[in-house]
From TrEMBL:
SUPFAM superfamilies: Actin-like ATPase domain
Name of the gene this protein is made from: tsaD
GO function term, MF aspect, one: tRNA N(6)-L-threonylcarbamoyladenine synthase activity
Note on cofactor: Binds 1 Fe(2+) ion per subunit.
Catalytic activity field: L-threonylcarbamoyladenylate + adenosine(37) in tRNA = N(6)-L-threonylcarbamoyladenosine(37) in tRNA + AMP + H(+)
Domain of life, source organism: Bacteria
Class of enzymatic activity (EC top level): transferase
Protein name: tRNA N6-adenosine threonylcarbamoyltransferase
PROSITE patterns: GLYCOPROTEASE (PS01016)
Phylogenetic lineage: Bacteria, Bacillati, Actinomycetota, Actinomycetes, Propionibacteriales
């Protein structure tokens, strides 16, 4: 099926077009630069930027895909989770398109889109590798840090672990800020860490002590790590010493990558799952990719790492999830659906 997907849950306005598992277009406009001086995404600023970007982005996607909108089989859109004021812009655009064209509308779960996108990670014209079942999905971004078990992408998805405070990307952004590095912090810390010693400072691995493991074995926590980095930097400043930015960055990055990968592999083993997929902006992190590769290989787990451009928020991930849902014969959502900022991962297709 030919499906157009709209994504606007956070700071990317994106429209993707797929034919089944073939990627035809994936246009992304990000308002990240507008948020730089605040050190994080500002919801009001993001929703206004979505309003300005949605029209041009849609037009570019249709031109790139070289299709006529009347050929579409369905319109898919992120219905949640995400920022309310951002979600409603994409949803309004999708509803309008579906109504004007007389096409079915599917309101979909953003997190499940991050998993479905793997179907697009193959050379153009070649068939897609089907998603392995079951798969453990590790989603790490500015807004999420989650472990999901995925039996069937169109309906059997469950959360088995999540962060109890900050998301991994948020921790990167906050630590960058206290080191005086620009936003977004992920890529700059990754870069700075290349010249540092990851064992210079032993930062805490959240929720790994025995009493925490009893209740939060597969959950994450990064606020204690952020505080530990802040305290270390402050102490060094009070002592009048230079801050070894590369060593702090490398040691922080090591703590994040270590705890994320250890818990993900533990979860896969515990659930008897032999396949893992990673998604979200932090999946671009070099140490995380490297360490996860080593640890999954040692545990006999097949790891899929979609290319970075497909890991960050994009419309094609929603379009390809829409195509799977259409193929599975699921009923459209209908034009009455609303955005749900806290949409649970168990709901793949939203109903009104
Ligand atoms: P959502 O959480 O809804 O998916 P988002 O916009 O916060 O939305 P993404 O766009 O997927 O998430 O990712 C952005 C985050 O990824 C930022 O926090 C950024 O610092 C982080 N990031 C990007 N590149 C890297 C990297 N190389 N290493 C670590 N973090 C990175
Ligand atoms: Mg983003
Ligand atoms: Fe996302």
């Amino acid at each position: 099926p030919l499906v157009l997907g709209i994504e606007s849950s956070c700071d990317e306005t994106s429209v993707g077009i797929v034919r089944g598992e073939q990627l035809l277009a994936n246009e992304v406009a990000s308002s990240m630069e507008l948020h730089a001086r605040f050190g994080g995404v500002v919801p009001e600023v993001a929703s206004r930027a979505h309003l300005e970007a949605i029209g041009p982005t849609l037009r570019r996607a249709v031109e790139t895909a070289d299709i006529d909108l009347s050929e579409l089989d369905a319109v898919a859109v992120t219905a949640g989770p995400g920022l309310m004021g951002s979600l409603v812009v994409g949803l309004a655009a999708a509803k309008t398109l579906a109504a004007v064209l007389g096409k079915p509308l599917y309101g979909l779960n953003h997190l499940v889109g991050h998993v479905a996108v793997d179907l697009l990670d193959h050379p153009a014209g070649e068939p897609a590798r089907p998603l392995a079942r079951p798969t453990l999905a590790l989603l790490v971004s500015g807004g999420h840090t989650q472990l999901l078990t995925v039996g069937d992408i169109t309906g059997d998805v469950a959360e088995i672990g999540t962060t109890i405070d900050d998301a991994a990307g948020e921790a990167y952004d906050k630590v960058a800020r206290l080191l005086g590095l620009p936003y977004p912090g992920g890529p700059v810390i990754d870069e700075a860490a290349q010249g540092g010693d990851p064992e210079a400072i032993r930062f805490p691995r959240g929720l790994t002590a025995p009493h925490d493991m009893a209740r939060h074995r597969f959950d994450y926590s990064f606020s204690g790590l952020k505080t530990a980095v802040a305290r270390w930097v402050e102490t060094r400043r009070l002592e009048g010493g230079e801050i070894p930015v590369a060593d702090v960055a490398a040691s922080f990055q090591e703590a994040v990558a270590d705890v994320i990968t250890a818990k993900a592999v533990d979860a896969a083993r515990h659930h008897g799952i032999e396949h893992m997929i990673i998604g979200g902006g932090v999946a671009a992190n070099s140490r995380l990719r490297g360490l996860l590769g080593e640890r999954t290989a040692a545990a006999g787990i097949e790891l899929r790492r979609p290319r970075p451009g497909l890991c960050t928020d994009n419309g094609a991930m929603i379009a390809v999830l829409g195509a799977q849902v259409v193929k599975a014969g699921l009923e459209p959502s209908g034009l009455g659906i609303g955005a749900d900022s806290g949409l649970p991962v168990g709901t793949v297709v939203v109903r009104d």
